[in-house]
Amino acid sequence: MLQDIRYALRMLAKRPGFTSVAVLTLALGIGINTAMFSFVDGALLKPMDYPDGDRLVTVWNTSGGCVRCLPSPPEFFEWREHNTVFSSMSADTHAHHATPPRSVNLTGGDRAEQIRGRQVSANYFETMGIGPA
Known about the structure:
The protein is mainly alpha-helical. It has helices at about 1-15, 15-45, 75-80, 125-130, and strands spanning about 100-105, 115. It has 2 domains: about 1-45; about 55-130, no CATH class. The chain is built from 4 helices and 2 strands. A two-stranded antiparallel sheet has the order 1-2. β1 (about 100-105) and β2 (about 115) form a beta hairpin. It starts with a helix and ends in a 5-residue tail after the last helix.
C-alpha cells in the first residue's frame, strides 16, 4: 500500500494542473457538505431552545387535498378536546410558513413601539414551558 501511495504522489506531482483541479474539487465538495450538514443539524436535528424541545411536534391538517394546512379553530378545539396522545396542545399561526408574523403597536410607556407578534392559543406558553417576554 505504501508503494501505491508513493506512485500516486509521483503522478500528482507530474501533473500540477490536474492536481490543483482535483484538490479544489475535493475542497469545494467537503466545504459544501460541511455547510449543508451544519444547516440540517441546526435547523432540523437539534432540539428547539425550549424545555423538552425534543418532545415538541407539529400536527398538520391533511384533509381536502391540503398537505400541510393549519386546522380551523373548531378543528383545533376538537383535536385538543379528544387528544389522548399529547400532554398538551396549543395553536400557533406561525407554524404555517405562509402566515407571516404580524406587526402590532405596543403602547403604554413614553413612546409607542412596533413589534412583531403572532396569534397563539391561550395555553401556548404553558405548552412550550416558557413565559411571555
